[in-house]
Amino acid sequence: MYENGRRKGGPLPILGSRAAATDSGGYVWLGLFEPTEEEFADAAAEFDFHEMAVEDALVAHQRPKLDVYDDSILTVLKTVRYLDDEEAVEFGEILVLLGTAFIVVVRHGAAAPLTAVRSRLEADPAILALGPSAVLYGILDAVVDGYIPVVEGLNKDISELEKDVFSDDRTNPAERIYFLKREVLEFQQAVGSLIDPLDRLGRGHYSYINEDLFEYLRDVHDHLLRIAQEVASFRELLNSILDANLAQVGVRQNEDMRRISAWVAVAAVPTLITGIFGMNFARIPGATESWGFGLVLAVMVVVATVLYSMFRRSGWL
Q1: What is the pLDDT of residue 270?
Q2: Are residue 245 and residue 269 in the same domain, yes or no?
Q3: Whether residues 291 and 160 fall in one domain
Q4: Are strands 6-7 and 88-99 parallel, antiparallel or unpaired?
Q5: 275 and 305, same domain (yes or no)
Q6: Do 99 and 239 share a domain, yes or no?
């Protein structure tokens, strides 16, 4: 329980906490990590959550959204962290139920810690004194700030992909490109779906949000918009990289085909000559002469050398 922006000491049972907070003019901040139906039952009963809100809190795997109920609002956020070794984005989920004199935060996934958020807010009693919506602001700010390292990680990997595609090494990073495209798409959905709910919170549509926090929420919204623009540019850049990679593969295949064709042409003339002189006819010019074998061999070497020189000058070999 928090009163005047400071935590009230001593243990506090869930049942009866809302009434205690209302009587003291404070509010309750309850944090839960992947609760079971039985573990969430006391909170649902104490704060009178709508059955749909209870289902969302327990099942999770929701897209970012903002739902309004009779005496509370539900905000769903996607948290992320970047696993550099795997070049993968790990997602978590935070569901925030906000009402009069309470805020209940349900976390799902390893990418959704809030210990630092609580410590930072408790170090600023002036913010916490603004009510439960101050906690929501702190969580939103932390979640959006958590997107920045992911953007940096993706940007680094995309830069490496560009170097791979345009390097002299005969590699084909198509699988890596498609994998990053999938990660960027999921990340873009998490970021983009949060833009509208955050905009509505910052414009004062809900009485649960303290008006002194509108400016702070709009600032978080601006940060989110910039991140969304960067993520959108990643998708376009990956599409361009994929097109460039396909073009590079096509060019290399053409080069290989030209080399193969050139060597086939070089080998074709000696093959033709040996085929003619290998025919079982009685009269073949030079076949019975002592100089015949040497002359034919010299002609094959000269013709092959001339063809090789021509293909070399044309860039086929």
Answers
A1: 78
A2: no
A3: no
A4: unpaired
A5: yes
A6: yes
The residue among 233, 249, 265 that closes a domain is 249
For residues 17 and 28, give the distance between their C-alpha atoms in angstroms, rounded to a whole number.
Answer: 7
Q: What's the CA gap between 317 and 314, in Å, rounded? A: 8
Q: Are the beta carbons of 88 and 180 closer than 8 angstroms?
A: no
The 10s digit of each residue's pLDDT in 249-275 is 776 767 778 777 777 777 777 777 777
Q: What are phi and psi of 200, to 5 degrees?
A: -65, -40
Answer positive or negative: Cα dihedral of 190, 193, 195, 199.
negative
Residues 23 and 74 in one domain: yes
Give dist(CA 95, CA 76) in Å, integer.
5
What domain range includes position 287? 255-314
Do both 269 and 301 map to the same domain? yes
- The rounded distance, in Å, linking the Cα atoms of 55 and 230 is 34
Helix intervals (H) in the chain: 17-24, 37-47, 51-59, 115-122, 125-128, 132-165, 174-202, 214-277, 292-314
Distance CA 27, CA 283 (A): 113
* Residue 231: CB atoms within 10 Å: 22
The CATH number given to whatever domain includes residue 292 is 1.20.58.340
157-205 pLDDT tens trace: 888 888 887 777 766 777 888 888 888 989 999 999 999 999 999 887 7
